[in-house]
Amino acid sequence: MKQKEIRIGMIGYQFMGKAHSHAYRDLPFFFNTKIKPVQKAIAGRNESAVKEAAEKMGWESYETDWRRLVERDDIDVIDIVTPNHTHAEIAIAAAEAGKHIITEKPLALTLEEAHQMYEAVQKNGVTHMICHNYRFAPAVQFTKKLIEAGRLGRIYHFRANYLQDFIMDPQFPLVWRLKKEVSGTGALGDIGAHSIDLARFLVGEFKEVVSIMETFIKERPMGEMSSGLQAKSNNSTLGEVTVDDAALFLAKFENGALGTFEATRFAGGNRNKNKFEINGEKGSVRWDMENMNNLEVYFANDEPGLQGFRLINCTEEIHPYAGAYWPSGHIIGYEHTFIHLVHEFLNGIANNYQPEPNFKDGLKNQQVLKAVEESAELKQWVNIAEQ
Ligand code: SOE
């Protein structure tokens, strides 16, 4: 089979860099695709660290200045896995250089930047994607199919909790994720953005929101963390935490459904508990990332006496993406959601269509993030269309 090579240049190489590198590497192995991602080069400022990362994660070469990567004519795609405050500058430069772009979420630091990024990709006609990977779990894609087929009927409720606990220790350092000028928001944009994306994917557009946000630990010791999200600092110099530790909000959707959202990094014992439940007139579904192959489904027309949630293991050939892997019942994991995501992205490039979620989705997501922040400040409902 003749394969089309798509040459990738990735900027950054920590946690998400590892997830993306693995996805490029394993995509051709599992999916009989005509596309061959080529891990051409990565960029990072620290030469010995970026060299080591390139070798470990299978990249052919490295650069110590991301601008060099964007200029290289042996690169088709720029993959951005750097902290949020760098997304706009890199993405706009990449679009102007005619590169296709895939970026980590949230799209930008601010809504203004998100608009500029969307304009740049539109103007330069490049393919773009944002990494809301949880959409690509087979159980979530299957939920979408159930909804589209009308199996849940009219949707009444979308109930999401995204719960983590990795910063609960007061000695956890003041890393970039806790600084507004680098990350934009805290739990809201880091994990709440994923719930917002799932809601937009499965239910529809947001109309208005009302929220509360809290920062429980207002000062932390200076320090860094490893890519594994674990850290402790004994530095006696403290700095101010300028983002939310938790963001809770209610939403009304344009189609009349109601949403309940909770994004927190202070839910002890919950490492990466990304959950949702949807209740519709004809049925309900429940999903939990920590058991991501399973979907709980309830149908109101099941016969009396047998009603209740049933457990579906989404590993059958019929479940989206599942057939590319193992026989039924042989589960897949977190990393596979990224394989599906880059599969969709590279297909979009090769076959000239705009994959989803893309920068437009990132922009709409950012409108919701901004409205949630504004609502917490104003203590009132905020309309999304006014963002
Ligand atoms: C840290 O909270 C983090 O790595 C997020 O940045 C990711 O988007 C989420 O999927 C897992 O947790």
From TrEMBL:
The lineage of its organism: Bacteria, Bacillati, Bacillota, Bacilli, Bacillales. Residues 6-130 form the Gfo/Idh/MocA-like oxidoreductase N-terminal domain. Keywords: Oxidoreductase. InterPro entries: Gfo/Idh/MocA-like_OxRdtase_N, Gfo/Idh/MocA_oxidrdct_glycsds, GFO_IDH_MocA-like_dom, NAD(P)-bd_dom_sf. This is Gfo/Idh/MocA family oxidoreductase. Residues 141-286 form the GFO/IDH/MocA-like oxidoreductase domain. Transmembrane segments: none annotated. One of its GO terms (molecular function) is oxidoreductase activity.
